[in-house]
Amino acid sequence: MQELIERIVAEGEHIGRGIIKLDGFINHQIDPALVLKMGREFARCFAALGVSGVTRVITAEVSGIGPALATANALNVPLVYARKHRPITMPDGFYLATAPSPTKGHIVELMVSPQYLAADDRVLLIDDFLASGLTIDALARLIEQSGATLCGVGCVVEKVFEPGRQRLEPLGVPIVSLAKIDLDDEGQMHVY
Amino acid sequence: MQELIERIVAEGEHIGRGIIKLDGFINHQIDPALVLKMGREFARCFAALGVSGVTRVITAEVSGIGPALATANALNVPLVYARKHRPITMPDGFYLATAPSPTKGHIVELMVSPQYLAADDRVLLIDDFLASGLTIDALARLIEQSGATLCGVGCVVEKVFEPGRQRLEPLGVPIVSLAKIDLDDEGQMHVY
Known about the structure:
Two copies of one chain form a homodimer. Chain A is α/β, with parallel strands linked by helices and 192 residues long. Chain A has a single domain (2-191), classed as Rossmann fold (3-Layer(aba) Sandwich). The first copy, chain A, is 32% helix and 31% strand. The first copy, chain A, has six helices and eleven strands. The first copy, chain A, has helices spanning 2-11, 23-27, 32-48, 65-75, 134-146, 164-168, and strands at 13-14, 20-21, 29-30, 56-60, 79-82, 95-100, 107-112, 122-130, 149-159, 175-183, 189-191. In chain A, the strands form three sheets. In chain A, strands 5-4-8-9-10-11 form a six-stranded mixed sheet, with helices on both faces. In chain A, strands 1-2 form a two-stranded antiparallel ribbon. In chain A, a hairpin with a 5-residue loop joins strand 1 (13-14) and strand 2. In chain A, helix 3 (32-48) crosses helix 4. The longest helix of chain A is centred in the first third of the chain and has 17 residues, at 32-48. The first copy, chain A, starts with a helix and ends with a strand. The A-B interface holds A 15, 19, 21, 23-25, 27-33, 35-36, 61-62, 65-66, 69-70, 72-73, 76-81, 83, 85, 87-90, 103-104, 112-113, 115-116 and B 15, 19, 21, 23-25, 27-33, 35-36, 61-62, 65-66, 69-70, 72-73, 76-81, 83, 85, 87-90, 103-104, 112-113, 115-116. Strand 5 (79-82) of chain A pairs antiparallel with strand 3 (29-30) of chain B.
């Protein structure tokens, strides 16, 4: 997605140890027009890959919400965001998966109420970054618990220097990223 | 906002102690079409109240992000969401305010990078619920730290049986809610 690539080149920053800062338009400040375009682009890419009949989009709070909401809007289906802290409104019997957070250094719990994910759902999983793939893999296991069908994985930015794509390939679904970032030996970003 | 009121009447639930569950379309699952309409309605209401020249919308993660993103989109300005856990990408010198969380029972920190909030900003503050008003008041103090001008407060649902509106009145800005919920002595919801 050319506009996204140009924005990453202009504003993205490798702050060390593979951490890419995109706080100006995805992770702290959000550019609404850009994020809505991401949603339309995900919808277009998955349709071109033959993915159809999606009934729900799923992401994990927090930074996946923008692009996932935009994708859900483009597909005219609800968005469900997995909670990391159980709200008092969540009933017992929720689906739960855990993933280590490489940037936060602890285990993250991901919870979805069975009220909003059912065995007849066809689900697109959307997140901001594909890096280790551990969060997305945890969400995929959570979808599996519910009996729903995972139809595809979309991420705004793929760090190709991390093993996320390889980790997710056994899921056997299309993996779409709107921009890819590689790092050279000097730590310079290459965006494409 | 009639569509929102009807949705709360149909799906909202008072689960006790003043806690209103709206997980089906705001707080866990989001209806994208409804949330985009909320954004347009906030833009229309604030314009009708004479609020102009808004440069940024601010909310707190997590559940404010949907309606705040929709409002930012309607106004064609960026959305900034205050972080509750400091990401490693956030530089020193961030704005910080704290609020007790009545539903979580601990102190919540709210952080915004000075990169995305400046003294010449004119800010709309959008959140999902206006209840105690403590979170919104903390965000208002954070905006004050930055020197930016708070132009208005918008909340999707106002619990009129809690003192939020009274707490925020000293801010001296318009307070807009798209739906109001009251509880009678039997704990039945009245939505208007």
